[in-house]
Design goal:
Structural class: mainly alpha
Helix content: 40-55%
Radius of gyration: 25 Å
Distance between the termini: 75 Å
Order of helices and strands: HHHH
């Protein structure tokens, strides 16, 4: 026999997931595609949309760490070849140059 536990019970092993309702307007093509995917997979429309959001998020960050993206975007023309060896000097030069470029 299983003991009944309340939502505030310290013995509760799994927290309820909190979900936020989202309203989405789809064009006819996307709506038909979503319907076909639900029929083909047996998944709910909500689950297919959740998986789509996660997939899109992975595409946006694929292959790059946030730090690598920052370094690349901060110097689009590239960093000097000796930046690893002479990083203190390179960063000091960058800092001095940034101070000169300020209005």
């Amino acid at each position: 026999m299983h003991a009944k536990t309340s939502a505030s019970s310290p013995f509760r092993t799994r927290a309820r997931s909190i979900r936020e309702p989202v309203q989405v307007y789809l064009g006819a093509d996307d709506s038909a595609l979503l319907s076909r995917l639900t029929a083909d997979t047996g998944l709910s429309k909500a689950e297919i949309l959740r998986r789509g959001v996660r997939s899109f998020a992975r595409e946006q960050t694929a292959g790059t760490s946030p730090m690598l993206r920052f370094v690349t975007e901060s110097r689009p023309d590239g960093w000097p070849n000796a930046v690893a060896k002479d990083h203190d000097a390179v960063l000091a030069d960058e800092h001095r140059g940034a101070r000169k470029r300020r209005p």
